[in-house]
């Protein structure tokens, strides 16, 4: 009991461990990006087969996030995170010695299960110590920034290690092993939510959560728009307005940097706006950026669209993480967060497919305009979720004296 209480009194240590966990797990993709051509050449793969290296890693996240949320409620967040970090790190270590393709694909699949699971679990861990308000936005922004920094640094480190051997970048995944030790001593054994008096709150079904459909639509929408922009804006920029690849890369980098900055600044917005209201504003900015892409007849229109998109993306990421924790049913936070993680992963997976299918019937520019219309529909969904939040905030407190929104 004393150990658990001590951990609960160190919320910012918990937030940083959760944030570093999410950041270190990006080594599974970002750290090996420079090695993909070398992996292809070593195994004699064609361009379709090299997609298996990424596919077997990303696909398990479609189902592992929700499963991890349910498991966390049964055995606690600390055990799930520590076990996941150990499995992930040992997988990277194994690939330093086992160099056959079946082993590579099998390890990538297992690591992908961990990746999809722990990314969502870390959102719930942060939400358990700072569930709502400016503090929640501050905590979730640390996670976003840790991931952004890792996504920038791991490709550089992987490039240096590639000079040693094609498999050397997998060694970056060993960083999760010492982090697992730290996590064991820092993370609380989060299972059910607690009332203000410290008693366990009975678990409620995630399917009875308020505005669950709207919250999940907003979860998928962020990644449907994001991966469509990342995949097809370069095609439009180069083919239709003649943007150079160098300038395009610079603009995407600046857009990502803006996302990291606005993620940090979202805490200030939280004193004026609900998380759902922030997402409403972000949806409108997404629609504006997509209209600029669809109507682009110059490099500047694409550039402005990318910058607007980056500005909203950081706020959207933090605000939705906070929203999920605010709307999670009592006693079922981790399962609800896991469900949301699964929906997000589905959004990532189907995004290029949906946009690509639309381009079979429409030009890319027109498809962007259609997606802009979808952004306006998303703004309507966010408005409905905001109404639900307002009703919950004005509703009666629970039996322990807690209001429904922000109950830890």
TrEMBL record:
Compartment(s): Cell membrane
Q: Which UniProt keywords apply?
A: Cell membrane, Membrane, Transmembrane, Transmembrane helix, Transport
Q: Where are the transmembrane segments?
A: 12-36, 48-68, 80-98, 110-132, 144-164, 170-187, 207-225, 245-266, 278-311, 353-382
Pfam families noted in UniProt: MFS_1
Q: Which residues form the Major facilitator superfamily (MFS) profile domain?
A: 11-390
Q: What is the lineage of its organism?
A: Bacteria, Bacillati, Actinomycetota, Actinomycetes, Mycobacteriales
Q: Does the keyword Cell cycle apply?
A: no
Kindly provide the name given to this protein in its UniProt entry: Bacillibactin exporter
User: Which terms in the GO cellular component ontology are assigned?
Assistant: plasma membrane
Q: In the UniProt record, what gene is named as encoding this protein?
A: ymfD
Record-linked Gene3D superfamilies:
MFS general substrate transporter like domains
**Topology relative to the membrane:** Multi-pass membrane protein
Question: Which GO terms of the molecular function aspect are on file?
Answer: transmembrane transporter activity
